[in-house]
Amino acid sequence: MKLRPYLLLLVFAIVPHLAGIAHEFVYDDDGAIVENRFLSAPDAWQRVLTLRTFSEPRTLDATRPTLLVSMLLDHATGPKTAWRYRATNIALHAGCTLLLYSWLIGLLLRNGDKSAAARAFVAALIFAVHPLASEAIQVPSFREDPLSLFWMLVVLNLMPIRNGWVRTPLQAAAWLLALGAKRKRIGSARAGGRDLVDISRRTPFVAAR
After folding, report:
1. How far, in Å, CA of 1 to CA of 19, rounded?
2. For the whole model, what pTM was predicted?
3. What tens digit of pLDDT does each residue of 127-142 get?
């Protein structure tokens, strides 16, 4: 594996977003983070890990345990420090960029594309620097987007594992983490399940090659 493309993508995914890292909380951050009593509750971790929040309609993002865990981790390192939350978003974006490149280059190579490395790099580079992603990266309270994408890209990167007994539980775990970052309702969870099944049905030939 050549490290240079990964290092270059890491730079492009991080450096452009460092200019805003020192800014204070904005938009929905006040309600989601600054004024969110749940993050400082002594039993917050227990409620999230036991999924008790699902029965708490007054808790913000109660049905998004993956998102809540990430927020609690940031809160533990710096409760009212915006740059810590923003740094996590930037790290997630960088992770998404690398995972996208890894998945694309593997997919293209397995399908005989001789320019797979170049095509995958260009696509990942566009994703890394595209301004449409800036809001989800710079606004800590919009973290559900890069967080859910990160885990869905993990699902896709696990496809080449030929052993289904290994691949399936790993993909299921990653899919549940993605679901816990974004989806809100049981109906949405069922739709997400259909998405995962659809992915598995459409791409087994990739893993077999």
Report:
1. 31
2. 0.86
3. 999 998 899 999 999 9
